[in-house]
Amino acid sequence: MSLVKHSARTVRKPCRSCGSSELYWAHDTDRAYHKHCDRCNVTGGFVLIEKDGSRHDCRITSGEPEDSMPDMDPDGPTEDDEKEVSPVAAPVSPDVQQALGMLVGALTPQVDRAEIEAMVKEAVANVVFPTRTVVERANGARIELSGATHHKLGDVITSLMAGEHVLMVGPAGTGKSTIAEQAAEALGLKSYSISLSPQTPASQVLGYMQATGDYVPSLFREAYEHGGVFHFDEMDNAHPSVLAVVNAALANGHMAFPDQMVKRHPDFRAVASANTYGRGATRSYVGRQAIDAATLDRFSVETIEVDETLENELCHSTGLETDLVERVLFFVRRLRANAEAHSMPVVISPRASVGMCRLLRAGRSWESAVEARVRRGMGDTEWNKLSG
């Protein structure tokens, strides 16, 4: 005899012979005269079984023929038997609740604190939480920056609050410029920025005197004199002599501008970003300049790597379907790991993953999105190495 349990709950109508209701419906597959049950994927007549899975045998013990047992009901379980009914608890008095609480406390085994902590750590080990940054200013005001932030933002803000100038070094697309803007917002200061190149003249930093004798100020002068966070973007792309002119401004409390000496505002801070540590070109950043040691000495250095938690948040914020976002992230990160493993001079930044999500959201095909944001004309040999 082979019995396959059919119902997840006990019968609503008791056994017609003995009146027991602590029974379940099952199929007797040795009796194949009943129609096929799609839910259980078996064929066999309905019978009643005990809690332990054995066949209900009240008629067997009474000496009546087995074939005449009422549990061989061709109609099987009723509609009520199939319903999922949530039990409703009867109200319990406070005295009973207190007594139950004491009983449970007495019967519950004591669990070691370290064991609980280990279970909690294991449960959340694979959960990714977007980074949120909250800043408490000297006046007690608390500022929570909107949206997810890079996990290094807090370190940059702390260094700036301590009076340091900060050089952020990391691959392209890791959010260095955004960190500079958010740091200024957190400190309640205006944000200024200039993108440097080998052709950037010193006058763009210091301002200049017109032929008429009038001084034309620069953004750097504005931040230096009145306070603010000034961002030197692409600092390792500038000519070293241009950066050398601001050494005194960063290290001292005053600076000579074309029109006069200017005292540095107490709330002036400088932030710089670069793709290298100022030692010259690399395989990936072939056009970078070496930075004078005296200039580098003015900065505290923060390494800004790819923040995958932030990358997750930015990709999902594009509105693309979740399964496609996960596919993009898996694909881009595999390419990123391959590029690093093979020391390939390519950059696979979060801009690639976010860009792919935007293109897919706009209706582009997977192949065209990959070509536009990742491959970008790369030859077959290099691409096979990167994507292999």
Question: Your description of this structure?
Answer:
This protein is elongated. The protein is of the alpha/beta class. Strand 13 and strand 14 (261-263) form a beta hairpin. The chain has 16 helices and 16 strands. It has a 5-stranded parallel sheet, sandwiched between helices. It has a 3-stranded antiparallel sheet with strand order 1-2-5, with no helix packed on it. Strands 3-4 form a two-stranded antiparallel sheet. Residues 57-85 are annotated as: Disordered. Residues 162-309 form the AAA+ ATPase domain.
Can you count the beta strands? 16
Number of helices: 16
Q: What is the residue-averaged pLDDT? A: 82
Assign an overall shape.
elongated
**Domain module tally:** 3
Question: In angstroms, what separates the terminal alpha carbons?
Answer: 56 Å
**Main sheet specs:** 5 strands, parallel
The largest sheet has its strands arranged as: 9-12-15-8-16
Task: Indicate the percent of residues in helices.
Answer: 25-40%
What Rg is obtained from the alpha carbons, in whole angstroms? Answer: 36 Å
β-strand amount:
15-25%
Low-confidence stretches: 60-71, 84-90, 124-129
The CATH superfamily of the largest domain turns out to be P-loop containing nucleotide triphosphate hydrolases
Domain AAA+ ATPase: 162-309
Protein name: AAA family ATPase
Pfam families: AAA_5
Region (Disordered): 57-85
